[in-house]
Amino acid sequence: MSQTSSDDAAWLRRYRPAQNPAARLVCLPYAGGSAPYFRPVALALDPAVDVVAVQYPGRQDRRQETPISDMNELADRVAEILERQTELPLTLFGHSMGAVLAFEVTRRLEAGGHGPVHVFVSGRRAPSTHRDETIHTRDDQGIIDELRATDGTAAAILNDEEMMRAALPALRADYLATESYRCAPGVAIDAPITALTGDRDPKTTLDECRAWAGHTLGGFELQVYSGGHFFLADNGPEINGMLDRHFAEGRVRERV
């Protein structure tokens, strides 16, 4: 991989720098989400794992930048940046919009010969399943109503007019990127996929989640947790434990 650039720091956030890392986990946020959402994951995992959270343009300290409203363009940018990182066994974890992005980034990394060893997709139906969603066309209040329905945003933020006004352009761009995305049923990656879902998630049925099995040549596992679309918040210790086991088993295989 090539040398890192100064642009990488804007995209990649490390909340607990790893000493002599043995593996890397890249976390990709949901629509309207930001890198700090994955800070607890970084603090919970083995220090030998380099945990990287992606910060998309158009939010928080990148608010002055134009959000990217096309999934393929966003995947191109993220893959390009990951290609520049020091080479380590790579795992991707994406939630909701981030799950689709993880899949598309993997396609690009595999084409370049640096594919991940595993992909975790959370809170999102398979790429080839389609729902006719048009949240990005709603007015501002309509988008806020959607956030309330999915319970992913604290009421204090939803009721803060100034904060929501600043966040809405990125939210609208993220919804457009996700809702305009299309993928054929036969498109598959080599990396194994583990799909995580909440048993009451309105955004995906179990059958839609199982359909991820058709998008990998490397094996598939489905894990169902109690909760809605943001079941990660209620199941953090269990999911962090699963990730810890994944990396521990990976290091054992490398030593054999």
Automatic annotation (TrEMBL):
MF annotations from Gene Ontology: hydrolase activity
UniProt record similarity statement: Belongs to the thioesterase family.
Keyword Hydrolase (UniProt): yes
Lineage of the organism: Bacteria, Bacillati, Actinomycetota, Actinomycetes, Catenulisporales
SUPFAM superfamilies attached to this UniProt entry: alpha/beta-Hydrolases (SSF53474)
Pfam families documented for this protein: Thioesterase
Listed PANTHER family: S-ACYL FATTY ACID SYNTHASE THIOESTERASE, MEDIUM CHAIN (PTHR11487:SF0), THIOESTERASE (PTHR11487)
Designated name of the protein: Alpha/beta fold hydrolase
Keyword field contains Iron: no
Domain Thioesterase TesA-like: 26-213
Domain of life: Bacteria
Keywords: Hydrolase
